[in-house]
Amino acid sequence: MRRRCVFLVGLCAVLALTGLASAASAWRPVRPVTVIVPWPAGGSTDMTARVLASQMERYLGQRIVIVNTPGAQGSIGMKDVWEAPRDGYTWGANASTDMVSYPVLGRLAQTHRDWKYFYVLWAPNLIAVRADSPYRTVEDLISAMRARPGQVSVASAGVGSSGHLAAETFRLLANVTYRHVGYAGGAPAVVAAAAGETDAVMQLSMEAADLLRAKRLRALAVMSKRSLEIEGYAAVPALGRLFPRMPEVGSYFGIVVPRDMPAEVLTAIQAAFVPAAEQPAIRRFARDRGVQNVALYGAAADQATEEQAVRVACTLRDAKLAVKDPAEVGIRCP
To answer: What is the pLDDT of residue 251?
Structure first.
């Protein structure tokens, strides 16, 4: 009996120590977390970061502060994220398209495989023109580009951005040319198109939604095989009806952190992200902005990014925009 009691006391001590070790290894922030958005306020990344942060705070148990650090198509802000201490207090927010494009464009040494992703939204690219544009359909826009090669202007968030890649994809599909006009972000690009500074814009649905409802922009097509519903606006026809073999053109959006962040920090981020991504506020935002609510993390997010990598990097190569061949960063083009 005595030996059994000693054994039980010892077992309890081991279990207690294990519990203490487990508690000690769990990470919880004791001060606000900073999320660096490498784009101006009002764009897709900024809107996504703000709505997601507002829902994650309750599960993280701490405030999340959004800091906009635009420049060089988002690479300056992501460099700041990479160089920050790995203490869990500095995260990034960005789009999958941008994370893939940076090394191919020579803007960052890190590749898309050096990061961990927590994607909450998928946003398709739209082809839109100002409300009083003479281009009533996407066929009208194609005809104009063919009649005036290199003269029809298209706004985007800059070289290598999602909007620019969409325009390049459109150019290759339709066998047309256009004049690219880059802006400091997606929001300035759609505003410029609505103001008539450019003939068209091919940015993301969530950036264009308010201007579509306000009848300052007209959507000609969504760059997908499926039509798009935006709350308070007519259904947007699919570009896939003209180009049945086209890829789905868009980006995943969410939180991005260095892959070598401590495991306990990654676990804490995931624990806050998973329930936050399913909140009604996120679903309402998705319906309002014409985007899809997703909750991708871990291996699923890595796989989604790899699939995006082939489309993005190979489009940059085919458009002669790539500084590095995709093969140099481990991406094999078909």
So the answer is: 97
Q: 154: which DSSP letter?
A: E
What does the alpha-carbon distance between residue 106 and residue 91 come to, in Å, rounded to a whole number? 22
**Topology annotation, domain 33-123+250-329:** D-Maltodextrin-Binding Protein; domain 2 (3.40.190)
**H-run or E-run covering 132:** none
Topology (CATH) of 126-241: D-Maltodextrin-Binding Protein; domain 2 (3.40.190)
The residues spanned by each domain of the chain are: 33-123+250-329, 126-241
- Taking Cα atoms as reference points, which of 314, 109, 128 lies closest to residue 221? 128
- Please state, in angstroms and rounded to a whole number, the distance separating the CA atoms of residues 15 and 127: 60
The whole-number average pLDDT for the span 19-37 is 76
Pairing of strands 115-124, 292-297: antiparallel
Rg (CA), the chain: 23
Region of 311 (left: φ > 0; alpha: ψ -120 to 50; beta: rest) is alpha
- Would you state the pLDDT for residue 73? 87
What six digits make up the tokens of 286? 């998705």
| Model confidence pLDDT, tens digit, residues 182-233 | 998 899 999 999 999 999 999 999 999 999 999 999 999 999 999 999 999 9
pLDDT, tens digit, 9 for 90 and up, residues 110-145: 999 999 999 999 999 999 999 999 999 999 999 999
User: What pTM value is reported for the model?
Assistant: 0.89
pLDDT of 20 reads: 36
Task: Return the DSSP state at 119.
Answer: E
Residues 98, 40: contact at Cβ < 8 Å? no
DSSP-assigned letters across all residues of 53-92: HHHHHHHHTS-EEEEE---GGGHHHHHHHHHS-SSSSEEE
Residue 151 has a CB neighbour count (10 Å cut-off) of 12
Q: Look up tokens 């103001």; give the residue.
A: 195
